[in-house]
């Protein structure tokens, strides 16, 4: 349904018909239902991501953490001015590829997938997943190294995620000497 001037309504109607840019009734209902809890969910994503980022930042098995909610992040001040929060996605680097491989074999709670912003936490290995087709030199220019992991924090209890990350990090360093 379109309300307003007839010419605009006809143009929108044509675009909807030509491109299929309309939601079905079930999709519309799901969207409206989800909007009611959006703020609560985003607040929890951000709170959990911040807690995990601080924890990772202090872990000796982690080389670096990228999260705008950390005061050390180069974009922290700008993000604090422009946004109401810092989001639910963070990235972190381990010390070497072997450590990354051991970590990925042992982490269990976040799903290993190419996606962001779900109810469940999702761990991505960009160099081997989303950016695998990009030449290594170009990836490095973008900051996507072979030791970078990205975590989209879901709605699980952050302490459960931390416990799982801890056991995976412990397994990852069992025979590692942190040589990059």
TrEMBL record:
Its cofactor is pyridoxal 5'-phosphate. Gene3D superfamilies: Aspartate Aminotransferase, domain 1, Type I PLP-dependent aspartate aminotransferase-like (Major domain). One of its GO terms (biological process) is transsulfuration. It holds the Pfam family Cys_Met_Meta_PP. It comes from the Bacteria. Keywords: Lyase, Pyridoxal phosphate. InterPro entries: Cys/Met-Metab_PyrdxlP-dep_enz, PyrdxlP-dep_Trfase, PyrdxlP-dep_Trfase_major, PyrdxlP-dep_Trfase_small. GO terms for cellular component: cytoplasm. GO terms for molecular function: cysteine-S-conjugate beta-lyase activity; pyridoxal phosphate binding. Belongs to the trans-sulfuration enzymes family. This is Cys/Met metabolism PLP-dependent enzyme. It comes from Aneurinibacillus thermoaerophilus.
